[in-house]
Design a protein that fits this description.
The protein has 6 helices and 3 strands, in the order H-H-H-E-H-H-E-E-H. With 120 residues, the chain is mainly alpha-helical.
């Protein structure tokens, strides 16, 4: 038998049911998973880190900072924005991007995990 599974079925029904009913609904979990996936790609995570440090940046600056093409950075920013992690505003011909409150919070959580796993 695997170390991953119980060898005996012994459900504490009352406890298990109270935990099951306390779980977030499927829509909320799907939204959270989408946000986690958005930061789960290295280029998008790099963009988020750059926005954290740089506060508000245009695509040209972000492309230079992360070492990617403007087209690729624009694509990733669209995904981050659709996940609610990045906000944008137009300034003349420029579009300026910044982390949203949710994006900052999620990035802080990721950074906290990094510190716990690799305290260097």
């Amino acid at each position: 038998m695997s170390d991953d599974a119980c060898e005996l079925l012994c459900i504490d029904f009352d406890h298990a049911e109270s935990l099951r009913t306390a779980l977030p609904d499927e829509d909320l979990l799907a939204r959270r998973a989408e946000r986690l996936r958005a930061l789960g790609e290295p280029t998008r995570l790099r963009i988020a880190h750059a926005l954290h440090v740089g506060d508000e940046l245009c695509v040209c600056d972000l492309a230079w900072i992360v070492g990617a093409s403007k087209g690729l950075v624009s694509h990733h920013l669209r995904l981050l924005r659709s996940a609610g992690l990045v906000a944008s505003r137009r300034e003349g011909k420029l579009v300026m991007y910044r982390l949203s409150a949710d994006g900052s919070g999620l990035l802080a959580a990721v950074r906290s995990l990094e510190a716990q796993v690799d305290p260097a």
